[in-house]
Known about the structure:
By secondary structure, this protein is an alpha/beta fold. It has 3 domains: 1-111, Conserved hypothetical protein from pyrococcus furiosus pfu- 392566-001, ParB domain (Alpha-Beta Complex); 125-189, no CATH class; 191-266, no CATH class. The chain contains 15 helices and 7 strands. It has helices spanning 6-10, 27-40, 51-56, 84-92, 111-122, 127-137, 142-152, 157-165, 173-180, 191-200, 206-210, 213-225, 227-235, 239-247, 251-266, and strands at 3-5, 15-19, 46-50, 61-62, 68-69, 77-82, 101-104. Strands 1-7-3-6-2-4-5 form a 7-stranded mixed β-sheet. The radius of gyration is 23 Å and the shape is elongated.
Amino acid sequence: xxxxxxxxxxxxxxxxxxxxxxxxxxxxxxxxxxxxxxxxxxxxxxxxxxxxxxxxxxxxxxxxxxxxxxxxxxxxxxxxxxxxxxxxxxxxxxxxxxxxxxxxxxxxxxxxxxxxxxxxxxxxxxxxxxxxxxxxxxxxxxxxxxxxxxxxxxxxxxxxxxxxxxxxxxxxxxxxxxxxxxxxxxxxxxxxxxxxxxxxxxxxxxxxxxxxxxxxxxxxxxxxxxxxxxxxxxxxxxxxxxxxxxxxxxxxxxxxxxxxxxxxxxxx
Length: 268
């Protein structure tokens, strides 16, 4: 393994970039890395692949501040696949290019596989990170695209699983990790039903719907009335009632209030 400094790499006219769709750089993580780097420097070299390899593996590139890089420019970049937060912390705190160490990964695995494995092994991911990673690996997958859109709105993976699968155990981090590594995973879901639920809850805030109160209430009532009537009834709840439900405290109180409001619109 050959270790280079950022100065060495830049001297060859090469710059550093990231992969579009990888988990977002977290300010909290950068702050944590900053404290460590300030005291000890970069203890573990950053891992990269050449920009051309990343593009050949189906990845899109972007600068560290989020600006897209065309595939034609890929030969002018290396791509960080492990160390985004360390790199960001080092750059933001003025660490010398001579003190930022990197090494090229020569494994035969694809860039997406390397990204998944390195990130999962190095630092515990949250549900949203797995969703973003799986979407990066399979950008054409409608389930992942839909799930990612909810994740970006602040929905946790457990609620997303309930909305898409009517079951919190079907859409999980473990299954997403397998998808990222190229394994086949069967996940039963229903986009039409999920869309109907979200449309039915459109008067409510994302903060409220992101909790599992609403989806669990909808699932419960749907077992008797079917999801379509329940979702349509939810959309008819008056704005004033919506505000009162959102201001209610206690999970059971909220679910009971919401259930009563939906039943009222159902004519029960």
